[in-house]
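Entry: XdhC family protein
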Amino acid sequence: MRDVIGDLLPDWEHGQTAALATVVRTFHSAPRPAGASMLVTSEGAVVGSVSGGCVEGAVYELAQEVIRTGRPALVRYGISDDDAFAVGLTCGGILDVFVEPVSRETFPELDTIQRDLAASVPIGVVTVIEHPEPRMLGRHLIVRGDGVTGDLGSERLTHVVGDDARGLLAAGRTTTIGYGPEGERDGEGLRVFVASFAPRPRMLVFGAVDFAAALTRLADFLGYRVTVCDARAVFATPARFPGADEVVVAWPHRYFAEQRAAGLLDARTVVCVLTHDPKFDVPLLELALDDGTLAYVGAMGSLRTHDDRLDRLRAASVPEVALSRLHSPIGLDLGARTPEETAVSIMAEVIAGTWGGTGESLGSRRAPIHQDLAQHDSLAEHDSAPA
C-alpha cells in the first residue's frame, strides 16, 4: 500500500471507487513478497505490481470486477500445465492476492494512514481476507503504538486480532494469521492480513563476545535490526557475528551518542551492554540511562560487577530514577549456562518488558495469558455485572 497510496487518494477524495490488489501470502519462489500492491483506479489506470508481470493481466480483470460489484476477492495464482503462461507464475511460485474495493465507505481511515506514512509514524493495517460471513471481508483495523481503531464485528475478536497485530507492528512484520470464528488463536475459518509499515526495531549490542554472537542470532530471528559495536577491531568482525546487520568498530559511548544525535534511536530500541568492563560500560550507560525513551537497557555481569557498576554510575552523578531503568544483571532467571541459553533469558526479559509480562510460569496462571486480554475480560465482566 505504501507505494500506491499517493495514487489511490485522488479517487478516494473524489468519492470514486478503486481496487487495491495485495499479495497476502507466498509460497516457494514467488516473485514479489507479501505486502506488494497493485492499484487499479476508477478510470482503469494501473499503478504498482503484484508479480512483476506474470499475473497482472488476470489481477487487472479481477480488479475491474471488484470495482463493479463492490465485493472483495481472494485468489491464488500458481503454475499449472494449463495456465502457466496464461495467468500462472512461470517461476514456479504460488501467491495469494486479495483484491478489495477502496472508497470512503469501505476504507474511511485511508487519509489518516497516508498522513502517518508520510510522517514515518509506525502503523499497521489489518484486513479480513477470509471470513464465514462475506459481508466481513475487507474489514480493517488500524494499529498504532498507542492502540487499535476499527471493528471486526465482535469486541473479543477485535481485541484478540488487535493485540496480535500490535506485536507484529512492534517487530515490523507483515504476515497472515488464522483464527476461529470467535478469535481462537490457531483456529480456522477466519484469516487476516497484517501489513506493518514500520522499520524493524533496533538492538544495539555492545561487546564483541560469544554471548553477543548468540544474542544477535536470536534477536535477528525475532525481527530486530542488530548492530554489534566494540572498540576492539580484532574482535568486532562481521565473520564473528553473522546474525548482525552491521558490526561497528567504535568506542561504545561515542557510537551511541552519534546514533542518538542522528535521530536513529526510538522508544523501540533495545540496548544490551555485554562488555562488563567499566571503561566501556560506565560512559555508555550514563548516556543510555539518561535517554529515558529507550525500550530496554540491560548490562551483563555478576552481582559484584553490578554493585560496582552502580557505585561508579552514582559517582558519575547518574540519578536514582535513571538507575531504576537499568536491567542488571541482564536477563531473566532461567538457570542459563551457555551463550545461547543466556540469549534466551535476555530476549525473554525484553519481551516481558515490551508486553507487560511477569516472567512467571504460565502453568501457575489462572487468568488469560495475554495481559491486554486479561484486562479486557475483567472489564467485560465488570460491565456485565448486575448493579
